Amino acid sequence: MLAFQEYKKTPERHMQDEIELPDSYVLLNCRLIDGISDESRDKMWISVAEGKISRIGSMDALGSESSGRRIDVEGRTVMPGLIDCHVHLVYGGFRNMEDAIRCPVETAVINASLHAWIMLQAGYTAVREVGCIGNTSVAVRDAIRQGKIQGPRVVASGRPIGTTGGPADILPPHWESTGGRLVVDGVEGFRKAIRRQIKEGVDNIKILASGVEVNPTCWTWMTTISQEELSAAVEEAHRWGKTVAIHAQSYDSVKFALRAGADTIEHGTRLDDESIAMLKASPSILVPTLCTLYSVLELGATLNLGQKQREEMATNESLWVESIRSAHRAGVSIAAGGDIGNRYKHGTNARELELLTKIGMTPMEAIHAATSTAARVLRMADQIGSLDEGRFADLLVVDGDPTEDLAILQDKTKLKLVIKEGQVVAGTASPHRGGGGWLTKKA
Ligand SMILES: [Zn+2]
Predict the structure, then answer these.
(1) Cα 88 to ligand 1 centroid, rounded to whole Å
(2) For the chain, which domains are there?
């Protein structure tokens, strides 16, 4: 409901009508954060042609680089569009899982479309969706691709797959568990569920390998799948060319997932030396979702969340923080994912970057976690997540320096332009709102 009111009163939704950029243009005087380098670079220019970055250079060597309009961004930061590796498009405004799974698919589609639009306004030009109701995320992904609605690029997982009694199995025993999630058992059960998801058009498979705090009977320290099931599931998904994200909050579930060859470990609440060494030695990427933890700790009372959920997160806090801190210290690849849609609202995804600095990341490392490393998770590192020639021009023009103050990325008034594939899709630099003098000035 809140989100809808926000939608009605937010004028940026017409931004695409207000600011139209030509097919080719050059942004001048940029402070460039390229998504890969450790330092930002001042006094740079970046040229865009037909939706892609065509060239990047220093202002000293601008020369005749003017194939198109010149726009002086006056020293503002230009950086890759942000990427969230762990979002739920359909959730939002639900107090618990019971409420969420009662949501009809029709409502879920509307929620997902709205949330996709809100995240784009917040500077997120790509997301990996890791669990929805019905086949919503595939439909929303395709509608965005076709230009029917506005939103980030979506890598879709569809329904999460888990075992009987596991986190996916949330309905009371006397109800038949269908619809929202796929509850299966045994090697053949997992193979069939994965093939079914592939038939529905997903890009990634989400498997639940441990308990979750929102399930009333299944705790995060429990491992809810066998090694045999998980290895077969990952093998099946990989054979079809799909990546696999594994919800793993128990010690064993992380090891099972890594032995199976998982592409990403979601949450990683309980890591020991052995699993950190395994992570370090594997190509798997850790997606810690610290927002999952802090959203319960912060909003537990306000939202009147369940007692089990709150107690469990209170127990998990020190384990979770220490696990991720140790993994970072050991040099494990970490990507940002906010688990947004559970308790924190869509559009607050950049909160995760701030939380990553609490476990020891520098602001620049946190930015990399939400740009180039996140693009690796989406298997799109050659297309997005860094500023380089030939990449899509998914860019943010930001007031201030996020490496000095990461909170800037959560302040929509500082997001002057959100550019997706070369075109302005959001931002507050509208000339109609008295903010875009620099945008219309002849450079
Ligand atoms: Zn999640």
Answers:
(1) 6
(2) 2-81+386-440 (2.30.40.10), 82-377 (3.20.20.140)
